[in-house]
Amino acid sequence: MTKIADLAKFKREVLEQCIQRQEQQIASLKEAIEAAIESALSESGSSEDSQDSFREQMQQERSMYNNKLAESSELLAGLKRINPNAVFSQIGQGALVVTDKQIFLIAGSIGKITFDSQDIFVISTQSPIYDAIAGLKKGDKYEFRGQHFVITDLT
């Protein structure tokens, strides 16, 4: 694992990348919803049954996008609530956790992102790995799925 020179700056930049990613995802979902609406409004078929079937399909698609939009918006709001300058003595929401093998940002269910040639796992407090590390401190050891880890840094 590469040593990160300025961990606080790294954390701020990773959090900003997560926010930008969520904003882009929300913009894409809004575009998809608009496209579904336009498609439903412009459909003209030969029979009323086929139009009804198509409209129902478009309504289901729009509903699916609206649900994803709500989830993405909630995640974005959570990311924006995190104080990027907060320093943690133990692992909790908003912490950047560096182990001897991986880096985690406890911020929401985004998954793996790459920043500055480093893989960072952006996880929520609901994830199984969080259960293994919640409340731990720099220097603590833990086991997850048969692997042993050491927390080498925390901010």
Automatic annotation (TrEMBL):
<protein>
    <recommendedName>
        <fullName>3-oxoacyl-ACP synthase</fullName>
    </recommendedName>
</protein>
<feature type="region of interest" description="Disordered">
    <location>
        <begin position="41"/>
        <end position="63"/>
    </location>
</feature>
